[in-house]
Amino acid sequence: MGHKAAEITQNINIAFGPGTARECTVQWWFKKFHKGDKSLEDEEHSSRPFKVDNKQLRTIMEADPVTITREVAEELNVDHSMVVRHMKQIGKVKNLNKWVPHELTKYQKKYNFEVSSYSTQQGTFLNWIVACDEKWIAYNNRRQPAQWMDQEESPKHFPEPNLHQKKVMVTLWCSDAGLNPSKTITSEKYAQQLIES
């Protein structure tokens, strides 16, 4: 079938000019005729609205910011690409939620603040630290949820569903002396640190 479609595509383009037909279109017609449909008429299309009410869209998205745009398109009976286009018009952007290991209670926050305050009063230890970065790397690395929000909004924090999943925290500390200028942190060095932790 592909060989015949290729030949017919070439013949159409020779007869009517280059770019008149594409092979995939000719293959589609082959399949249609093969099923017994000899009609050249357009099939009836569902009459979907060509506009989205931005107020209605905003109401839906603010009621449930984690709603999937395909579900909204189905609810409004419009094309998915139209919903995405109108999301931009109403100033909504898709941001990934920020994972936190778990939500802290007021007591835990107060305790963390007191410990940090005490450490700064006792000596110059924290003055030695210029930068610190840490990254949780989960063995079960599933996709992070996202939600639609206004452009100026910052992502909301959501606790991880499973606090006890297997993971490792990689931490990088850098003093005021900086990193060793003769060494680069390569993927091999990074992998070695992961294995050692």
Automatic annotation (TrEMBL):
<protein>
    <recommendedName>
        <fullName>Mos1 transposase HTH domain-containing protein</fullName>
    </recommendedName>
</protein>
<dbReference type="GO" id="GO:0006303">
    <property type="term" value="P:double-strand break repair via nonhomologous end joining"/>
</dbReference>
<dbReference type="InterPro" id="IPR001888">
    <property type="entry name" value="Transposase_1"/>
</dbReference>
<dbReference type="GO" id="GO:0046975">
    <property type="term" value="F:histone H3K36 methyltransferase activity"/>
</dbReference>
<dbReference type="InterPro" id="IPR052709">
    <property type="entry name" value="Transposase-MT_Hybrid"/>
</dbReference>
<dbReference type="InterPro" id="IPR036388">
    <property type="entry name" value="WH-like_DNA-bd_sf"/>
</dbReference>
<dbReference type="GO" id="GO:0003697">
    <property type="term" value="F:single-stranded DNA binding"/>
</dbReference>
<dbReference type="Pfam" id="PF17906">
    <property type="entry name" value="HTH_48"/>
</dbReference>
<dbReference type="GO" id="GO:0000014">
    <property type="term" value="F:single-stranded DNA endodeoxyribonuclease activity"/>
</dbReference>
<dbReference type="GO" id="GO:0000793">
    <property type="term" value="C:condensed chromosome"/>
</dbReference>
<dbReference type="GO" id="GO:0005634">
    <property type="term" value="C:nucleus"/>
</dbReference>
<dbReference type="GO" id="GO:0015074">
    <property type="term" value="P:DNA integration"/>
</dbReference>
<dbReference type="Pfam" id="PF01359">
    <property type="entry name" value="Transposase_1"/>
</dbReference>
<dbReference type="InterPro" id="IPR036397">
    <property type="entry name" value="RNaseH_sf"/>
</dbReference>
<dbReference type="GO" id="GO:0031297">
    <property type="term" value="P:replication fork processing"/>
</dbReference>
<feature type="domain" description="Mos1 transposase HTH">
    <location>
        <begin position="2"/>
        <end position="37"/>
    </location>
</feature>
<dbReference type="GO" id="GO:0042800">
    <property type="term" value="F:histone H3K4 methyltransferase activity"/>
</dbReference>
<dbReference type="GO" id="GO:0000729">
    <property type="term" value="P:DNA double-strand break processing"/>
</dbReference>
<dbReference type="GO" id="GO:0044774">
    <property type="term" value="P:mitotic DNA integrity checkpoint signaling"/>
</dbReference>
<dbReference type="InterPro" id="IPR041426">
    <property type="entry name" value="Mos1_HTH"/>
</dbReference>
<dbReference type="GO" id="GO:0044547">
    <property type="term" value="F:DNA topoisomerase binding"/>
</dbReference>
<dbReference type="GO" id="GO:0003690">
    <property type="term" value="F:double-stranded DNA binding"/>
</dbReference>
<dbReference type="GO" id="GO:0035861">
    <property type="term" value="C:site of double-strand break"/>
</dbReference>
